[in-house]
UniProtKB/TrEMBL annotation:
Family statement: Belongs to the class-III pyridoxal-phosphate-dependent aminotransferase family.
Organism: Actinokineospora alba
One GO MF term: pyridoxal phosphate binding
Pfam assignment, any one: Aminotran_3
Subunit structure: Homotetramer.
InterPro entries noted in UniProt: Aminotrans_3 (IPR005814), PyrdxlP-dep_Trfase (IPR015424), PyrdxlP-dep_Trfase_major (IPR015421), PyrdxlP-dep_Trfase_small (IPR015422)
Keyword Transferase set for record: yes
UniProt EC number: 2.6.1.44
Keyword list, A-Z: Aminotransferase, Pyridoxal phosphate, Transferase
Name of the protein in question: alanine--glyoxylate transaminase
Enzyme class, broadest EC rank: transferase
Cofactor(s) of this protein: pyridoxal 5'-phosphate
Species classification: Bacteria, Bacillati, Actinomycetota, Actinomycetes, Pseudonocardiales
Alphabetical list of SUPFAM superfamilies matching this protein: PLP-dependent transferases (SSF53383)
Length: 436
């Protein structure tokens, strides 16, 4: 529990940081140490981390290979000078990501965040197509700057209604509350494709720059579209010459288990992919990988002062190597299945749980008012607090704020999955209406 000093820090935070920078928990926590998949707060309490800093810590904490790579760079004395000079680690990382992307002759640009990556993708697409019309997906989240907020379809996060781009929304993977009712995959995809054609015909002039989409919506509550939805979309986009941008900020690096990139589940090659979060395993790095003609369409200079700096790229190269060398994608697939089976078991006896969904180590639990489908955000908040009290950190999200999100580091073990399932079962049982 928080002591006096900790309470003062919370007050100081509220006094000097913006009101819209919300903190988790009735008594917010300060994490001061971490190792493996466990974090320790300033009171000495330890937690199994099933949110990993909103998927930033792809491989967990205090991994020797990563710390050593960063330390070697620090030992040179060069944290960063300028991206106006050659940075060896940047070139090496770009080569690896270009190859992994599958995009022929791909080019890579590094940024410091996912927001900046998506802003860059939007700038490139609008410039390439000479149009400021953009298609996004309902309930999406793409970042917190001017254009990315403008295309964010989740009301809770679209902090400004003013936008430099004109956006129209297509249907995505939120099937639990689908406007088309409960359909088979094939019929759902057909309904979405018909809807996209109508959106294009009624809300755009046709010369749209791009569609930007999260293969699985993150902030939106881990909503999974049926495999192949984006294939159906891509066929329509191709008729119009519209580019496809896959926002892989949460779904990249093998987290979805089946594939290295989330969009691969749909059997299409996007024109651009944006990434961030897990690649740095805690260091600030993001970027985009794109078709060379799209990447090179700018004629003026454009650099990022810190994007792809030596420390961030030293760390990111080591993270990427670690993911590949240890086949963490396979671990995400295997343990994701174990986690999901356990959660379905809890869901069957709990009318508070309306839906369990996800892929790999990206699983959402949607809470409802028992007896129907009304969103139950109070239950989700209560589960957040109950899990914390039992030593487990989880995330919250969803359009109605009623989804608990699980996204542990991909180095997770079977014992840790079982530990989390026990805590989740007990925590849901502790919510009014919950069943043990
Ligand atoms: N895209 C997606 C899918 C995200 O989940 C996020 C962050 N939650 C962003 C973009 C923005 O990334 P950042 O916070 O690093 O700017």
């Amino acid at each position: 529990m928080a002591d006096l000093e900790q309470n003062q820090l919370i007050d100081r935070h509220r006094a000097v940081l913006p009101s819209w920078l919300a903190l988790y928990y009735d008594e917010p926590i300060e994490l001061v140490r971490a190792e493996g998949r466990r974090v320790t707060d300033s009171t000495g309490a330890t937690y199994l981390d099933f949110f990993a800093g909103i998927l930033t810590n792809a491989i967990g904490y205090d991994v020797a290979e990563i710390s050593d790579a960063i330390r070697r760079q620090l030992d040179t004395g060069v944290l960063h000078t300028s991206t106006l000079y050659l940075i060896r680690g940047q070139v090496e990382l770009a080569e690896k990501i270009a190859k992994l992307s599958g995009i022929p002759d791909a080019k890579v640009f590094f940024t410091n965040s996912g927001t900046e990556a998506n802003e860059t993708a939007l700038m490139l697409a609008t410039q390439f197509r000479r149009s400021n019309q953009v298609l996004a997906i309902r309930n999406s989240y793409h970042g917190r700057a001017f254009a990315t907020v403008g295309i964010t379809g989740n009301r809770g996060w679209s902090a400004s209604s003013l936008s430099p781009v004109k956006v129209s929304y297509a249907q995505g993977g939120y099937r639990y509350r689908s406007p088309f009712g409960q359909l088979s995959d094939v019929d759902y995809i057909r309904a979405c494709a018909d809807d996209l054609r109508e959106v294009l015909q009624t809300t755009t002039s046709g010369d749209v720059a791009c569609m930007i989409a999260e293969p699985i919506q993150g902030v939106g509550g881990f909503c999974v579209p049926p495999d192949g939805l984006f294939k159906a979309y891509k066929e329509i986009l191709d008729e119009y010459g519209i580019l496809l941008v896959s926002d892989e900020v949460q779904t990249g690096w093998g987290r979805t288990g089946e594939h290295f990139w989330g969009m691969q589940a749909h059997g299409v090659m996007p024109d651009m992919m944006t990434f961030a979060k897990g690649l740095g395993n805690g260091l600030a790095i993001g970027g985009l990988v794109a078709r060379p003609d799209v990447m090179d369409c700018l004629t003026a200079n454009s650099i990022s002062t810190f994007g792809g700096n030596p420390v961030a790229t030293a760390g990111a190269n080591a993270v990427l190597d670690y993911i590949l060398d240890n086949d963490l994608q396979a671990n995400a697939a295997k343990l994701g299945l174990r986690l999901s089976e356990g959660l379905h078991d809890i869901a069957t006896r709990n009318p508070l749980v309306g839906d369990v969904r996800g892929k790999g180590l990206m699983i959402g639990i949607e809470f409802v008012v028992p007896g129907g489908k009304d969103p139950n955000p109070k239950a989700a908040v209560r589960v957040l607090e109950e899990t914390r009290a039992r030593g487990l950190l989880v995330g919250k999200g969803g359009l109605h704020n009623n989804v608990i999100r699980l996204a542990p580091p991909m180095t997770l073990t079977e014992d840790e999955v079982d530990e989390a399932l026990d805590v989740l079962g007990e925590s849901i049982a502790a919510v009014p209406g919950g069943v043990s």
